[in-house]
Amino acid sequence: MNETEGKVIKTETDTGSMEDLKVKEGRVFFETKDGNIKIIHDDFLTTNLIEKESVDLIVTSPPYNVDIHYNSFQDDIPYEKYLEFTEKWLKKAYLLTKSDGRMCLNIPLDKSKGRKEAGFQSVYADIVNIAKKVGWKYFSTIIWNEGNISRRTAWGSWMSARAPYVIAPVEVIIIFYKERWQKIKNGKSDITKKEFMEWTNGLWTFSGESKKKVGHPAPFPIELPKRCIKLFSFVGDIVLDPFLGSGSTLIACALFNRRGVGVEIDENYCKLAKNRLVKEARINQKKLFGD
To answer: Which domain holds residue 241?
Structure first.
């Protein structure tokens, strides 16, 4: 095991000023030469590798708790325990975000599979309430239409009013902010007029990502973090993904000139994210542990 202790990484913003992203102790699995993209191999709930109030934008998709097989996470726990876990990580994320920081949270609208005793659960409503409880302020919700209705197999009582299932083939991206919605300082935006007009419409339609192609049980496509970071952050901002998975958020950061930090508890997924960064974002490495 390698450790980086007491290190301060200097990065340059588009305005030319230098900002510190402090790494106190622990393991940085991968880092680009300029220090702008980092993968941290750690548990987000306990990691101390990210400075408090340093993050401009969080883009993430946490475990859904629908019995997806991850290497290092049991995604089939009792719903009450899942909500306790959700409260803990949302509180930690709040502490790491700047006062004008934002969060784009990709989750299912509701839960219709997983542990049988749980049944249907109002995931969206429950998580919004928890986020507000720990301090996040609600701004809006984007409906992501993946167009995956053809994969549906559960109907309940077929062609009968006895117990039919109503399942919405969409996910949501909830937009939260910490203390104020308007950014304290103006920065450089790289969004086009066409993108701005299209993406400020709260219904996004694009395909999901192939699990087989990426090699992860629940990847989201680069299009999702791309839209979030271009719409809700400035060039040079620090973007965090506390559940990095296959690395889509960091790929978008590298492609669109944001400083990205991803935390991932599973070392194999750290390797997967690193390989995707090298291949899809064509970045050069500074440090790599665990090969």
So the answer is: 51-261
